[in-house]
Amino acid sequence: MKGKTIVIGLSDIHWGSEARSKYLYNDKFGGWDTQKTVKIVKNYCKSIIAATKERRYNFNKVVILFMGDFLHSVSGFTGRGTPLKYDCIREEQFDYALTSLVEFVGQIATSFPLVEIHTVGGNHAYEAEIGLYRAVEMAYRNQDNVKFEHYASRPAPFLVDTTLFLLDHGADSVERTYVPTKESQLKTHVNSLLVKKPELVAKAKSVLFLQGDKHHWKHIEFDNFEFIMFGTSLGVDQHADTNNWNNRARQSCLVLDETGLKEVLHFYTDELIK
Questions:
Q1: The pTM is what?
Q2: Are the beta carbons of 3 and 58 closer than 8 angstroms?
Q3: What's the average model confidence in pLDDT over 171-189?
Q4: Which of 66, 119, 131, 269, CA to CA, is 20 to 30 A from 151?
């Protein structure tokens, strides 16, 4: 039987983010801090490996998506100057993220024969995040089964077997540009992107447009592509709580076969934190 590909989403991790319980109304986790983020990422990796072993089919490749906003902000502000709540910044925040990511990639690389990592920057700490991605790549520069592809364009187009990916964090660090939220505008936006890449479309049996940024999961099927918005593993943050935005925090993986998307695996924060 031909093996499948598992696509691991890492979206809006926000190492450095803090939320104090006394300021929160919808607090399910006793506040939030970087230690919780580190634990979630570690347990997410373990859960992915366990979930793949439970399945009766084999995985011949792993694709990891670094989808942006890994660093909450090494300066304490977003790229456009919005002040943030944090429990660590600068070198300390960078070190937490780097250590967690190197461990994450290492565990995955020992469990699967080939690991392909595709990276896009977020809107919170783009410049530092690009350095973070390169630092993780350097940790595996002599490991033949780990390959990195970094993208500066929005979106990032690439093929995984016969599935065409358009990967976009969802918001820009400098320009006030966002992926459209209305379905009609989103459909027009994605189709206008596809028209400009006929050489990739010709090789694809399916198309996935993926983004993060909004901190919740959404999956919409259009006639010629599927749209997936990945969530966040942050259990709670003050900005969302003040706006009464509630979701079940998660990281998610996709399973692909030769025809496209076969299965979606969700790994929820309230389970990973235990």
A1: 0.96
A2: yes
A3: 93
A4: 269
